[in-house]
């Protein structure tokens, strides 16, 4: 896949550490993809409204970014780059003042109304059950359930939406090639396979770090018509998501919890500050704007057939009759381990290969054929 000059420079600017999205957008729009490589740090400072030393750092980081390598990684993962202002960029998110200049996305973005469901990473059984009930009911009403793929409430919401036959979007606090937490990689793949979408504003190979998650939370809020908070302590990150939702003029709802439970602190604080009380999906529906397009749905949108590149085809060619380890695939294909790991993760997302016991990989059709012949359980 080859990116346009505009997309390539959007990716470069987006790669700058903790970049201000609005200033990055000004640089792209005013200097343009043709002018940016020729402009000096003084031009970057003037157009971006930056101090000269900061402009010099931004210019240095952007020019050093391996955009060709990033495009290859995106192709391997089945990801696409969405640039603010271009077709396909999420419309609601694009209305916010601090929307990312660029987003990486795996899977389709539907036109159904999105609502965020967020909360504690260590919820009580009450919190888990509540998140499950709300997310499932929302999915059945045609609402896209948006969350952050974290443990706890996020994962419960994603899984409940999928189990109900609905659509869910996940926003990562890391690059798509380094999903966090690692134990939710299967959930990542399931979301994409079942017609949902996983998004991140970060370069594909960027690992998670604590400073990245508050920035992730603004995207969760910005994508959504409303944010529903289910459990959380007084310091819960879900409060930052709710705060951004208020800043964007979106509705905030909170589920009341048991009195005395520390996990009730965040939703009860929000209720005192004016959040809408949520006791059923009807409260969520009432918070959406007229004509949002909700109503009972019977089926999920099908995901498009996955496209593969030359390197992926080469790997799949070696998996025609047996499972192989990464070392074996490396010797056969000549690809280095870092590139090969990314390719295999991308093929798993595309549902073309399976990880099997012993840290080996097998082509999906091979194992299906084995199951049909032997009547055994697919690995």
| Largest sheet entry | 9 strands, mixed
- Can you count the helices? 17
How far the N terminus sits from the C terminus, by CA atoms, comes to 32 Å
Please give the number of β-strands: 12
**Helix proportion range:** 40-55%
Rg value: 22 Å
Q: Give the count of structural domains.
A: 3
Order of helices and strands: HHHHHEHEEHEHEHEHEHEHEHHEHHEEH
What is the topology, as strand order, of the major beta sheet?
1-2-6-5-4-3-7-8-9
What is the CATH C level class of the largest domain, in words? Alpha Beta
Rounded mean pLDDT is 90
Stretches where pLDDT is under 50 for at least 5 consecutive residues are: 366-379
CATH architect. name of the largest domain: 3-Layer(aba) Sandwich
Shape: globular
Q: Which structural class fits the helix and strand makeup?
A: alpha/beta
Work out the strand percent: 5-15%
CATH topology title of the largest domain = Rossmann fold
């Amino acid at each position: 896949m080859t990116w346009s000059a505009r997309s390539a420079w959007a990716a470069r600017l987006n790669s700058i550490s903790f970049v201000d999205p609005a200033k990055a957008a000004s640089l792209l729009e005013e200097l343009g993809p043709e002018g940016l490589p020729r402009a000096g740090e003084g031009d970057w400072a003037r157009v971006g409204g930056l101090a000269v030393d900061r402009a010099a750092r931004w210019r240095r980081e952007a020019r050093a970014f391996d955009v060709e390598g990033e495009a290859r990684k995106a192709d391997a993962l089945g990801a696409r780059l969405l640039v603010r202002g271009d077709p396909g960029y999420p419309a609601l998110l694009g209305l916010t003042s601090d929307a990312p200049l660029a987003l990486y996305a795996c899977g389709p973005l539907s036109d159904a109304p999105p609502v965020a469901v967020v909360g504690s990473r260590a919820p009580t059984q009450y919190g888990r059950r509540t998140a499950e009930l709300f997310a499932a009911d929302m999915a059945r009403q045609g609402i896209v359930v948006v969350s952050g793929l974290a443990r706890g409430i996020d994962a419960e919401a994603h899984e409940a939406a999928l189990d109900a036959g609905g659509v869910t979007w996940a926003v990562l606090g890391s690059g798509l090639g380094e999903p966090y937490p690692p134990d939710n990689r299967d959930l990542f793949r399931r979301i994409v396979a079942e017609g949902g979408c996983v998004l991140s504003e970060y370069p594909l190979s960027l690992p998670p770090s604590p400073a990245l998650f508050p920035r992730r939370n603004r995207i969760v809020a910005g994508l959504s018509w409303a944010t529903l908070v289910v459990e959380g302590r007084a310091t819960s990150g879900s409060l930052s998501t709710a705060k951004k939702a208020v800043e964007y003029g979106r509705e905030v709802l909170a589920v009341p919890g048991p009195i005395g439970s520390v996990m009730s602190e965040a939703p009860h604080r929000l209720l005192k500050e004016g959040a809408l009380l949520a006791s059923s999906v009807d409260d969520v529906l009432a918070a959406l704007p007229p004509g949002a397009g909700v109503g009972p749905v019977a089926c999920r949108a099908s995901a498009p057939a996955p496209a593969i590149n030359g390197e992926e085809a080469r790997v799949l060619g070696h998996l025609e009759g047996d499972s192989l380890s990464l070392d074996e695939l490396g010797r056969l294909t000549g690809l280095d381990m870092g590139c090969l790991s990314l390719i295999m993760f991308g093929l798993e997302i595309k549902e073309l290969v399976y990880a099997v016991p012993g840290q080996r990989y097998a082509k999906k059709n091979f194992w299906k054929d084995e199951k049909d012949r032997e009547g055994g359980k697919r690995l």
